[in-house]
Amino acid sequence: MDFRIPFNRPCLAGNEYKYIAQAIANGHASGDGPFTRKCHELLERELDGPRVLLTTSCTHALEMAALLLDCSPEDEVIVPSFTFVSTANAFALRGSRLVFADISPDTLNLDESRLEALITPRTKAIVVVHYAGVSCDMDSILATASRHGVRVVEDNAHGLFSRYKGTYTGRFGCLATLSFHETKNFTCGEGGALVINDPAFVERALIIREKGTNRSQFFRGQVDKYTWVDIGSSYLPSDLLAAFLLAQLEAREEIQRKRRRVWEYYWQHLHALARENNVRLPVVPPKCEQAYHMFYLILPSLECRQALITHLKEQGILSVFHYVPLHLSTMGMKFGACECPVTEDLSSRLLRLPFYNDLTKDDQAHVVGAVEEFFGRN
Ligand SMILES: *Cc1c(COP(=O)(O)O)cnc(C)c1O
Q1: Is the whole model's pTM more than 0.90, yes or no?
Q2: CB of 151 closer than 6 A to ligand 1?
Q3: Does the Cβ of 196 fall within 6 Å of ligand 1?
Q4: Which domain holds residue 127?
Q5: Would residue 7 count as lying in a domain?
Q6: Phi then psi for 70, rounded to 5 degrees?
Q7: What is the CATH number of the domain that holds 57?
Q8: Which domain-ending residue is among 205, 227, 250?
Q9: Which of these, 27, 72, 90, 299, has the minimum number of CB atoms within 10 Å of its CB?
């Protein structure tokens, strides 16, 4: 079905075709070519100094994190139940036992006040997700993790360039991951990155990303032939994709300005309606500067949400919901019972409104009008 207003529409920043043509002319279409290097340099500079490696997806960057931490069947890994499958699956692939954490009702981020109770002597890592590009309470999470000697990984698929107390998200864990999937703020269709904050991981990350070979040491002239030295896989995106991505990353300020305008329009036009109708809008704590990744409503009930989705569809508007709680999924249930009542409640009532860079004011007014009509306003 075609919608007048889709949920997401990939938007070009301007230089994508030009850069892809250059990448083809360069004769280096495989990984780690000139455009990949430019993306690395841009992200390393803008994020104030971590090592950044482009990957084929955020899913693959998470898999690299699980490999770098040597996660094994002896280990437990704490992940929020309210997240995309890949946050958990990367660690399940190593055979680790997943322990699902509940979320806070305000930000829908991992509930730091109930984190410590989930830690056992087997806990290897805590994976946090900065939901909707609003940072988790990192002071509290890092303090809990360090008391128990547990590593923190940030799944920052939503939050590139968001900040917590002035520091970019993705700079707090030993490792963090980014997504450049079509539905994210900056995209090349499919893509991601591993952000390495602990330099001790750099050398092995290069090897894991190059199929377990020391190929990148060879190119740096540090060894005279390259060979298989560790486990690994093929996690390098083509330089054609990096060319696409560079065009988007260079336009980051304009892209974020557009997304901020979309977010603020929804906020301005819906907050009164929300208050009057027991609907909740996103909460951005004062410590956080958000990434303007999405705009969601939390409706009073599941029935109300489903009825609103249907009403919007009739007006040619596609709205969507997520996530199916992982602890209730077929795979998630294999890790044993866990208590995530807030996740179960909020995931059944959450609705995401259309959100993309080029969403026009007219189309947004149409969305707002349809929501108002549903609640009998105007
Ligand atoms: C999109 C997303 C991913 C997966 O990203 P890919 O680049 O598609 O692999 C992982 N975690 C979260 C929270 C996401 O939103």
Answers
A1: yes
A2: no
A3: no
A4: 16-250
A5: no
A6: 55, 40
A7: 3.40.640.10
A8: 250
A9: 27
